[in-house]
Structure formats: structure tokens, C-alpha cells
Design a protein that fits this description.
single chain, about 25% strand, alpha+beta, Metal Binding Protein, Guanine Nucleotide Exchange Factor, Chain A, 3-stranded antiparallel β-sheet
Length: about 160
Amino acid sequence: MNRKLIYSLSFLVLSLSGCTQNQTDNTMVEKKLTPEEKHVILYKGTERPYTGKYYDFWEKGTYFCKMCEAPLYESTAKFDAGCGWPSFDDEIPGAVRRITDADGHRTEILCAKCGAHLGHVFEGEGFTSKNTRHCVNSISMVESPPRRGFMIKRKNY
């Protein structure tokens, strides 16, 4: 088998594996995604640094998955790491799944509900007391689901 074919097949397998866990009926949502959103969310791409809507966005509230609208992060966990992407030191419990990235070195983060690619998580950098940085593509999130109004605040129970 020639090398080009092997690389093409490997890319195809990796691309298709991104949104298989607990997929709800995301067909309609996928059709509404722009080509750039599909590149990041479905095919594990990365948006350019310092260009995302939420990099320098500091409103209080909750960030939701662009694909399935599951709550992912609270604004209280957001901090400026100076890396060019929104950074969070904690996720909403059970909202984010971690897997070893295809490169074998980084840890990819996915929406636990639908498997949408969010970005990567890094530990041991010392930015916050939690020593964790979720580096998230803005394009993978919305600050509020379209049907729910602006920035729903979670109650502390």
C-alpha cells in the first residue's frame, strides 16, 4: 500500500471518530454549521489564535456546546492565559471528556454529550491554583443556546 493511501485512510478514520460518543440527533445541527465550524468541531481543527469571539469576552454566565447545547463551562472558571484562545481552569462536572490526542502527546477535550471537539487541556502550567488550562476554540461554544435567552446563570446548590 502506498504512503499517500495510508495517510488518507488514517485521516479519514481519525476524522470520523470525532463525534461518535453519545451522539444525539445532530444531523440538523451539523447541516447548520459553517465550513469553518465543521473543520474545528467535527474534524478536530483549530481556529486561528486571537480571532475567536470568546477570547476576550468576559460576560458572566455559562458557555454551551455549539453542537448539542450542553453546558460546558462557567464564566467564573475563565481566565486570561495569553495563549490566543479562551482558557478555563475547570469544567462543569461531567461536561467534558478527555482523550489522548492523535499525536499521542496532548490531551484532547470533547463535549461529553455529543463528542464535539473543543480543544485541548494542559496541566502543570501554574496559571491558576487548579493548575489546569482548558484551551477551547471559541467556535466550539456559544454563550447561550439560541432558544434559552442570554447567558443562563447556574444556581449553586
